[in-house]
């Protein structure tokens, strides 16, 4: 954690890169994307999986048996749902003992209305920028919209967080803000993160 906030790095794939990023002080979660249309799709079990960081599997409108298979094979601590999964779907997965992160795309205040239906079936929410495709755009949304969120579930902030976001993140306050999700803006190429860029960013966040 940095300043009491969870640091999640998503879109990991290569063993050495996973190991390098996990070794950075403050990293709490590493995400693996199991959505075949993503350029960061994990198509085989890496030779190394995180030991200290929590493992998060990212899925889009996937059937529950497939998720259970990946959760078992990768030893997932969390399942992150990026599609149109219903509260009932989340509840049934949650009842198997899996922790659930539900992603919501945010563009305007009305996008927050539906999140309250998921309050009792998710452990974390993730607020991301609305875009055409599933899995994020690398762009930032208007964080002030989240002033309207007054639910009880803590959330991760996602969408376009980059090397220059540290000051803005330090200024953004919300009683339910649990942490930050880093992905495409910290990459050398899809699925491979730049450990130095992440380390520098986290040092700025701490200062």
TrEMBL record:
Q: Which domain of life is it from?
A: Bacteria
Keyword Isomerase (UniProt): yes
**Keywords, A to Z?**
Amino-acid biosynthesis, Aromatic amino acid biosynthesis, Isomerase, Tryptophan biosynthesis
Answer yes or no on keyword Isomerase: yes
Enumerate the spans annotated as N-(5'phosphoribosyl) anthranilate isomerase (PRAI) domain: 8-203
* Pfam short name (any one): PRAI
Listed SUPFAM superfamilies: Ribulose-phoshate binding barrel
Molecular-function annotations in GO: isomerase activity
This enzyme catalyses: N-(5-phospho-beta-D-ribosyl)anthranilate = 1-(2-carboxyphenylamino)-1-deoxy-D-ribulose 5-phosphate
The residues that cross the membrane are none
- Pathway involvement of the protein, from the record: Amino-acid biosynthesis; L-tryptophan biosynthesis; L-tryptophan from chorismate: step 3/5
Q: Give the Enzyme Commission number.
A: 5.3.1.24
Q: Which family does it belong to?
A: Belongs to the TrpF family.
| PANTHER family cross-referenced by the UniProt entry | N-(5'-PHOSPHORIBOSYL)ANTHRANILATE ISOMERASE (PTHR42894)
Q: Which HAMAP family match?
A: PRAI
Report the protein name in the record.
N-(5'-phosphoribosyl)anthranilate isomerase
At the highest ranks, the source species' classification is: Bacteria, Pseudomonadati, Bacteroidota, Bacteroidia, Bacteroidales
